[in-house]
Amino acid sequence: MSHKLLLTAGNAGCGYYALVKFAKESEIKECWLTARSDKKAQDAITSLVKETGKSREFFQHVVLDLADYTSVIKAAQALPSDIDRFCFNAGGAYGGMHELGVTNTYIPTLGHAILLDQLLEMDKVPKGSRIAYVSSETARPVWSFAGLLPGFGRCGVFSNFCLSSMWGEANVEDAITRDVSGCGDPCCIRGHCLPFRGRLQQYANGKLVGSLYFGQIAKDNPELNVISISPGAIADPEKSSFVNAVGFPVKNLMRLMPSLFEMIGVAHTMDAGVQRYVELLTGEEKYSSGSMPMSGELLCKCLCFPGCAWGGKGKLGDNRSMSALLRDDDGKLKKKAFEVTQKWMKNWSENAGTYSSVPITPSASAGANKGFSKEIAPEEESMNR
Question: Where are the annotated segments for Disordered (predicted)?
Answer without folding.
Answer: 360-385
